[in-house]
UniProtKB/TrEMBL annotation:
Signal peptide positions (record): none
Annotated source species: Halorubrum alkaliphilum
Keyword Transferase: no
Domain annotation ABC transporter: ranges: 4-253
Protein topology in the membrane: Peripheral membrane protein
UniProt keyword Cell membrane present: yes
Keywords for this protein: ATP-binding, Cell inner membrane, Cell membrane, Membrane, Nucleotide-binding, Translocase, Transport
One Gene Ontology cellular component annotation held by this UniProt entry: plasma membrane
InterPro entries tied to this protein: AAA+_ATPase (IPR003593), ABC_Ni/Peptide_Import (IPR050388), ABC_transporter-like_ATP-bd (IPR003439), ABC_transporter-like_CS (IPR017871), Oligopep_ABC_C (IPR013563), P-loop_NTPase (IPR027417)
Main location: membrane
Organism placement in taxonomy: Archaea, Methanobacteriati, Methanobacteriota, Stenosarchaea group, Halobacteria
A GO MF label: ATP binding
UniProt name for this protein: Peptide/nickel transport system ATP-binding protein
Pfam family, one: ABC_tran
Length: 355
């Protein structure tokens, strides 16, 4: 069964200089029990996507187009009141920062019990407390500390408490936004394993948002690679990281440190994602791409399908292992428009310095 079906979603933010297209024409689905990873550099629209799905966009943000079908019901058509019943009970979110997500004036127990009583009005106090105990055990927290306030917890414990809260109502879909970024490597590993175990027990689906490709490799079945508000590539984890067809995926998997490997030979994708207020007309990655041609700068790429992957690159069908090997070489990434522009700028600064 399809739990979530996002179709042609556009989310804008009103800014002083005009509307910024944070999510632009994004379509994907998540099946029951499936884990989908969303990866991409900072600012590519991952958190906005999650906030639109659970219905907590800030005032400046709005859905401009598209649908978000949850178990067949389009959430974008519902009123604020109707949507509330989905929040936490059916769709929950493990936010980036547990400190911001937890209420400082209530104990952890009070917050979890409150959530249970709001969404399951028939649940008695004793039963709610049993759920707190069970969730604390599952996330590896000492339940004696349930009556403490968030500030009395360490960062790792707060993150675990947040996970306990997000999973207490056994939601069908959990949106995990950088669930372990604030934690050290050992803790990250434990927490990821823990989330996986709990999730299997309650058979929920999960959308894992991260910039760390090793987290996705470890926890997800499929992955969506986002770039500048759009999907660059989508498909099963093994294929995406084994034989990708989009140059951005190739760069991304070598450009960011990951929690698995200590000795990493990282490469750099020169430049930055484009402004989302006035994005370029062709492929948004063209300026930073070693394969880019005039066509890429002018025409927006359509989806190409290879080996179960959906890749938005004009040259996806021509990409082979030869190119994948070249993309592993940092020198390949020194030959892009962005890299050349940065070199020219540096040379200019040096010349000025010599004058
Ligand atoms: N409240 C806001 N008002 C205006 N623009 C915003 C707002 N929140 C986010 N944006 C912009 O929307 C774009 C997408 O941001 P978003 O936080 O969704 O990206 P992200 O991929 O989750 O990044 P990160 O990993 O840093 O959280 C960015 O350009 C960001 O500047």
């Amino acid at each position: 069964m399809t739990v979530l079906n996002v179709s042609d979603l556009e989310v804008y933010y009103e800014t002083e200089t005009g509307p910024a297209q944070a999510v632009d024409g994004v379509s994907f689905s998540i099946e029951e029990g499936e884990n989908l990873g969303i990866v991409g550099e900072s600012g590519c629209g991952k958190t906005t996507l999650a906030k639109a799905i659970i219905g907590i966009l800030p005032d400046a943000g709005y859905i401009n187009n598209g649908s978000i079908e949850f178990k067949g019901e389009d959430l974008t058509e519902l009123s604020e009141k109707q949507r509330r019943r989905y929040k936490w009970e059916e769709i929950s979110m493990i936010a980036q920062s547990a400190m911001n997500a937890l209420d400082p004036v209530y104990t952890i127990r009070e917050q979890i019990v409150e959530a249970i009583e709001t969404h399951r009005p028939g649940t008695g106090r004793v039963e709610a407390n049993e759920i707190v105990q069970e969730m604390f055990e599952l996330v590896g927290l000492d339940q004696k500390r349930a009556d403490e306030y968030p500030h009395q917890f360490s960062g790792g414990m707060r993150q675990r408490a947040m996970i306990a809260m997000a999973l207490a109502l056994e939601p069908s879909l959990v949106l995990a936004d950088e669930p372990t970024t604030a934690l050290d490597v050992i803790m990250q590993d434990q927490i990821l394993k823990r989330i996986g175990q709990i999730q299997k027990e309650i058979n929920s689906s999960m959308m894992v948002i991260t910039h760390d490709v090793s987290v996705v490799a470890e926890t997800c079945d499929r992955v969506v690679v986002m770039y500048a508000g759009q999907i660059a590539e989508e498909g099963p984890v093994e294929e995406i990281f084994g034989k990708p067809y989009h140059p951005y995926t190739m760069g991304l998997k070598r450009a960011f440190p990951n929690i698995r490997e200590s000795d990493q030979n990282l490469l750099s994708i020169s430049g930055y994602p484009p402004e989302l207020i006035d994005p370029p007309s062709g492929c948004r990655f063209a300026e930073r791409c070693p394969l880019a041609t005039e066509k890429c700068r002018e025409i927006e790429p359509e989806a190409h399908y290879n080996n179960g992957l959906r890749s938005y690159c004009h040259y996806a069908d021509a990409i082979d292992d030869g190119f994948r090997a070249r993309a592993d070489d940092p020198a390949t990434w020194a030959d892009t428009e962005a890299a050349r522009a940065i070199r020219t700028m540096k040379e200019g600064t040096m010349m000025e310095g010599n004058d």
